[in-house]
Amino acid sequence: MKGYFRISWSLPVAIVLAFGLLASGCSKKSSINGPPPTGYATIYLDSTQQIIRGFGAANIVGWRPDMTAGEIQTAFGTGPGQLGFTIMRLRIPPDSTQFGINVPSAKLASSMGVTIIATPWTPPAWMKSNDNVVRGVLDTGAYAAYAAHLKSFADTMSASGVPLYAVSVQNEPDVNVSYESCYWTAGNFLNFMKNNAASVGVPVFMPEASGFDHSLSDLSLNDPDAAANIAFIGGHIYGVSPTPYPLAISKGKEVWMTEYLVLDTTWSAVLGTAKSINDCMTCQMSAYIWWYIVRYYGPINENGVVTKRGYVMSQFAKFVRPGFYRVSATANPQSNIFVTAYKSGSKVVIVALNMGSTSIGQEFTIPGVAASTFVPYVTSSGKNCAQGNNIAVSNGSFTATLDASSVTTFVSN
């Protein structure tokens, strides 16, 4: 985050059959004959894509008040009016005496099974070329000391009952700002990941570039010793559209979107968050993490009330749980309709966006589905993850009306 604030296509059938359609996540169907009729959304349960680790947001203690126990329950619980988040992102302070400020809320979240990750905005000033927590670079002789600094944070959290899933090397190493920051080049990352990351003692991810700049991690991924120390690739999507990262996938590395925000709270902008999640999922990302959990433009406002953006995010987070896999689906079956689908065992979840201004009927066909009914949940300008009536499946298909300007999640029974 930049400080406290930050201001269907069609292809020839022959090509589709030969190569599939990467951007839509579609593949040649193996369980029904021929291509689906125009407008159908086909879910390919036999075409498994990336694992899903979850959805969440950041709790940056010190820059914002710590979350209350009630806000933790609202964010990470799965009951009515709760969001179902499963990831919390923390800040690693440059001052080690401040490590403990993260413990109370993170410990409660961890006790609920939440995945905790942490990111430094800067190394301690004494380790840097400019002796300042703003800008500068990590001294070449301080890499081992910096790894020890990160290890100390992880050890402090673990000893306090908060085991960390992973820590980052640096927040947004590619930006020129006037708050806590530090520049890193691709060569700097290669040096650290190859020679120092293993001594941190917990998994390490990188590079968390502001615009998901793949060039900052390419060198490390292409070096076997460095790549062995990369837990996953993290990045932000400020100023860019999500794109796949084939090199990371080819090296067996998950890709996580670890920070994003927009300040606009109009309904069209809030629905845009659903489209942002949709696009990250179709680009093979395993996690989607918003900026502040508690903020007026985030999922919970300063009064502890779930916002429209929170309900939109819950359409994914409450139902697409850690350990689910995305499966290929017709990504854009009709104008303004966008679809992703997920499975875990026999459980199937479909998330459909209607970005248009009128309601529309949408047929879903799911070859091989075992479910007899799906239950819909809808968030729109007038609904908040509202449960609808069960929809019967007939011959592997069902039809539903998608409300105007809405996101609907269909969950198999």
Describe this structure in words.
The chain contains 10 helices and 18 strands. Residues 1-35 have low confidence and may be disordered. Strand 8, helix 9 and strand 9 form a beta-alpha-beta unit. Helices cover 23% and strands 26% of the residues. The relative contact order is 0.15. The protein has 2 domains: 13-49 and 326-412, Sandwich (Immunoglobulin-like); 53-322, TIM Barrel. Strands 1, 10, 11, 12, 13, 14, 15, 16, 17 and 18 form a 10-stranded mixed sheet that branches. Helix 5 runs parallel beside helix 6. With 413 residues, it is an alpha/beta fold.
Portion in helices: 10-25%
Q: From the alpha-carbon coordinates, what is the Rg to the nearest angstrom?
A: 22 Å
> Would you count the extended β strands for me?
18
Largest sheet: 10 strands, mixed
Approximate shape: globular
Structural class, by secondary structure, is alpha/beta
CATH-assigned homologous superfamily of the largest domain: Glycosidases
The ordered string of helix (H) and strand (E) elements is HEEHEHEHEHEHHEHEHEHEEEEEEEEE
**Number of separate structural domains:** 2
Q: Would you identify the regions where 5 or more consecutive residues have pLDDT less than 50?
A: 1-35
Q: What is the helix tally?
A: 10
